């Protein structure tokens, strides 16, 4: 080959690679679901098999992820582990490896065959191609270049969603050779600002990384970096990502993720700033909640405790549970004490109450809870807020927002109310409204507050049933331009809950909470 011919070949190769993504990509499905190693689980297909890939395409997921390695004779194959059939892939030729078929009878797929099979009758599922790194840097560089060249040769560029890798050098090489290629980093150690600086297009980190660094989510969005997370299989984790509006969710449970994505209705104008998805067990997260202890308000009959009997997290849910049981009151002085909390030697009931006071407080936003309510006459569950200046000015001057209250003697209704100096139940002037709720004890409902400087909307399952407007008078009418914290509790008896007595036979009875979330717009923060 002459120098001129060689130069022409090099020029063609570089031009092709530079233009790998200068074609129109396929229009992907309208969901965030990336089937991890294909949709293999339900039908028992081998992971990274063509059958699993085709199933992901058939089910209409946005993407299907698969793993690529390079054999000793530099054949690109689709497989995850460094060994296949007890053979080290980097030390074995493809011919030797291909003698061992996948459990469903497929030949170990070459990347070229895999891509061709995936492009057939597929105009909506993109490929998330993971390049598995070698310890040999030169092999990594060669694999990156060969992958780009192969994608060009089989005309697969329109179907490539992202190249992903745990190797930063592989991703940087891809961007060097083909600047328009899209890449996501998997390792979880790089901040969004570092990725942006190096022209990496997105974060594809384990979900625990995002939980440890929640600010990275917002930062990535500001930098226009795509958000992905692997491998997310629990419903509470999927809901966390949906609530945070991740672009992609890589999962072994694509059907579950798709179903949850279809019922996720969070308005795109809102950003999740705080939540508890209760994806842990035992005591509540002490960085988010503290316990109220003792006799508290409204001459209610329960003694709040931090016992797991009354407050616990299990199976991805928060449980607040009221019990009929006698408990000593350490505040007791005498039956003639001026403070009613010191008149009772013991309480006949225990229950749970938790709060975000001194841990998390907000001014304006969308605050919501998804929960089943406790059943029983005399029970008074509530999801509500108090102003941060309660200790200085007291109630009702601090303001109170009852996002959801329910009383057991009125089993098919809930109500949303505000209390202020001018409008409160002690004067009979509180502003509130009730609405019908169907089957609140056995079905989950979403109870929400939409709070702006101009008004408050109280919502049941996304529908406004009460609106209270700011009259623009004084803080006596509207003290709601300051931070408020959350409270979540089950009261027993009391001035409202106990109006028709207490049915002890209904106890124990629990409120079961799927999640609590706080959203804000950028202008609210």
From TrEMBL:
Residue intervals of the GP-PDE domain: 31-261
GO molecular function, one term: hydrolase activity, hydrolyzing O-glycosyl compounds
Entry-linked InterPro entries: Beta-glucanase-like (IPR000757), ConA-like_dom_sf (IPR013320), Glycosyl_Hydrlase_16 (IPR050546), GP_PDE_dom (IPR030395), PLC-like_Pdiesterase_TIM-brl (IPR017946)
EC number: 3.1.4.46
GH16 domain sequence ranges: 246-524
A Pfam family hit: Glyco_hydro_16
Keyword Membrane belongs to the record: no
GO terms, biological process: carbohydrate metabolic process; lipid metabolic process
Key words of the record: Hydrolase
Family: Belongs to the glycosyl hydrolase 16 family.
Matching PANTHER family: GLYCOSIDE HYDROLASE FAMILY 16 PROTEIN, GLYCOSYL HYDROLASE-RELATED
Protein's name in the database: Glycerophosphodiester phosphodiesterase
